[in-house]
Amino acid sequence: MIEGQAKGGRAAKLRYGMIGGGPGAFIGDVHRKAIAMDGGAELVCGVFSQRYENTLAAGESLGLPRERLYRTFDEMVRAESKRPDRPDFISVVTPNSSHFPAAKLALEHGFSVLCEKPLATRASDASELACLVRETGLLFGVAYAYSGYPMVKHLRDLVAAGDIGEVRFVNGEYPQEWLMSKLEDTGQKQAAWRTDPKLAGASNCVGDIGSHIEFMAAYLTGLEIESLCARLDRFGAGRPLDDNATVMVNYKGGASGVYWSSQVAAGHDNALRLRVYGTKGAIEWSQETPNTARLSLPDRPTMTLSRGRDPMSPRAQSLSRLPSGHPEGYFESFANIYSTFIAALAKKLRGQPLAPADLDFPGVDNGLRGVRFIEACVASSAKGAVWVPMG
């Protein structure tokens, strides 16, 4: 818990534990660096791998005492819950299949949680987590990190203010090329678990990157999907899960959209892009050039908005860290998710009420909706790419 105030009036750091993120795990190190960027919390315990020797090696490199390194997340959560210096929250950065059991156990023992996406491999499990969060009153965040970019915040506020009018159509794409070859057959860890149904769940491509499109479209526009029609492809010979997906969506209220995600698209690294078309104009944003965006209004030249140079909405400006011309990227976006979550948790632990702006991070209901989206895509494709309702 919070231990008063540090010298100079600065609040003391929160403490956190981590499940996952050991040797060979890309995303765990991103989480740790993002948390460290603003100094709001420090890592105090962990179980970083299914192999205890790997956890010990990772813990030693991170400066953690051996007695706070554990063999399983069950052992860690139960032991740490009894300590007077217990963590204030748990970060879950494992492969998909263990998100639900790890997060559930943490909630049951009184820990707030920030979990990687997708929230679970089944909607029923994600729904159980959402119920637990409501019952316990604990904070829960989901790592849809791209919503942490200041320009994304600004565009969301433009849409909400009606600057592009009523939204008619949303186009989202997320192409990558990294699985064009059977990388999973080489022993590459990231490819191996993402293409394994036992670890990834019912979908690879939609679950891994298509879910980002779903969240970002909803975050930017506030629209809810009513129904969808999905085709999930398996271009890698013998792959049990999808590596390419095309999804048509109908939103409540009459707007429509098309989402395309692919891990077999030559020439693309991590090319998440959103285009939103309204009755008065359009916006466009790309993750690979996150500091700028396009705003198109009729009878005017298309404008390039620049983070750091151009005025932005107050929320977006508050998360902009560097002057114009100094690019902010993925780590800063992740850090903005964590800084918001940590600040909200610190206020909650002090007994202070939380305002809506304090909760501007992806929450458990966003995670639940994402899992329902994945399940609906899998169900639609399995039936021959038919329209199905969004659960």
Write a brief caption for the model:
The protein has 391 residues and is an alpha/beta fold. It has twelve helices and 14 strands.
How would you describe what is shown here?
The chain has 391 residues and is an alpha/beta fold. It has helices at residues 26-38, 52-61, 73-80, 99-108, 123-136, 150-160, 189-194, 197-200, 205-221, 314-318, 330-349, 364-382; strands spanning 14-19, 41-47, 89-92, 112-115, 140-142, 167-175, 225-233, 244-251, 256-262, 273-278, 282-286, 292-296, 303-306, 387-389. It contains twelve helices and 14 strands. Strands 13-12-11-10-6-9-8-7-14 form a nine-stranded mixed sheet. It has a five-stranded parallel sheet with strand order 2-1-3-4-5, sandwiched between helices. α1 (26-38) links the parallel β1 and β2. α1 (26-38) crosses α11 and α9 (205-221) crosses α12 (364-382). It is globular and about 65 Å long. It starts with 13 loop residues before the first strand and ends with a strand.
Helix content: 25-40%
- Describe the biggest sheet? 9 strands, mixed
The spatial strand order of the largest sheet comes to 13-12-11-10-6-9-8-7-14
Low-confidence stretches: 1-9
Mean pLDDT: 95
Number of strands: 14
What is the chain-wise order of helices and strands? EHEHHEHEHEHEHHHEEEEEEEHHHE
Terminal CA distance reads: 38 Å
Gyration radius, in Å: 21 Å
What's the overall geometry?
globular
Q: Give the helix/strand class.
A: alpha/beta
Give the percentage of residues in beta strands.
15-25%
- The number of helices is 12
